[in-house]
Input
Amino acid sequence: MKIAKFGGSSLANAAQIKKVCDIVLADSDRRIIVVSAPGKRTSDDIKVTDLLIATAKARLNGGSYEDELNAVIARYREICDDLNIEDTLPDVIETLKSAAASDTTDAVTYVDTVKAMGEDCNARVVAAYLSSIGHPAKYCNPKECGLFLEHDAAGKAKILGESYDNLAELAHEKCICIFPGFYGYGRDGKIITFSRGGSDVTGAILAGAVNAEVYENWTDVDNVFAVNPNLVNNPFPITEITYDEMRELAYAGFSVLHEEALYPVYVRDIPVHIKNTNNPSSKGTRIVANRTRYDSLVTGIAGERGFLTITVTKYLMNHEVGFISKLLEILAEEGIPVEHLPSGIDSITIIARKKYFTPEKEEIVINRFRNEAKAETVKVDRDLAIVMIVGQAMEKSVGIMARAASALSTAGINLRIVNQGASEISMMFGVSEEYCDYAVRVLYKELFRY
Ligand code: ASP
Output
């Protein structure tokens, strides 16, 4: 059994929905289909999810939300008309209206309830269309199917373990199941959504629940590329990549799937296959536990801004037991995740993300490092980008670091941090933010244009 998830651009209008249904019907193993809300039809269009968020906000602000809601209804009306399933429209309109008019006492739940309806209505539409052309399909409600979530301490949606057993039942359905992505239900029966792009997570959960042979993630590009296609022309396509490589690249801003979508398939060793709805015959990119092929020495290069360094010095630091753990304890108490910890004999640099280390936190942390850990100097530098070179095949080859460092030095890019060793499949460079994109281009030219 295959789980196929289709993103918003794959379902943006009737023509796209027909393509999706052709793909579904082309393989009888595609029995559980996860759908996003209709996305953008053109580059300046607005996603249905954004229209729904605007609807919810208008209501919460106490004004009329009619225009916003009508814009959503208009999208579905056009889709239903073009698919000749006008009978489905009243159900869709009722679903949207009742969510928009629901209880606003808890604003978070209210917004989640409204914005989840993009996926919900699209699942109803796709199921109705497939049935109308003679292929029995059913809309699956996440509550009835038992997709239960809760909020973690940071307010993020987290799956409850029992959901996997509940959802495994879908494997016994006789018809095609159309499951809305992006949301589930709390134990109290209230809707909870994942963060944006969360239909990827729903697909991964369902793939895990039924122990699928593959999790297909259908989008609008032929492959994942070795580097951000906005930075170089015609980047090298990735046909196969491991979960680990993907994680390393995602860390430096390589966004292909939702961050939480890999875990449910990773732990069950289910391959992910990224495919293009607009070009189904293209090979796509497979994300696997163990690679069978290497098309290049390096798999991908990515860079991300938004980091900072906190450099702490103390004479005889290496003799003092517990000094580093004290620093880490303070950061943990202040809720600041630590990314890397390169260290010297009497100094240590803590790399963190700027979004967690606000200027207010900076003052608190510096004082606590000085007073509680008795640090001698604490210096914060808010200008760091991380550039990662990732590739499983690098393990077996000599000289990549030398080539990378030499190319960067020829380009006049100062390397502030270098880290290789913690993970054998990646190397990391810290550069000033202004050099981030340039460094990625230089490395790509050096390592892929050989
Ligand atoms: N429709 C939601 C979004 O735009 C979820 C998704 O498409 O995965 O973020």
In short: The mean pLDDT is 95.
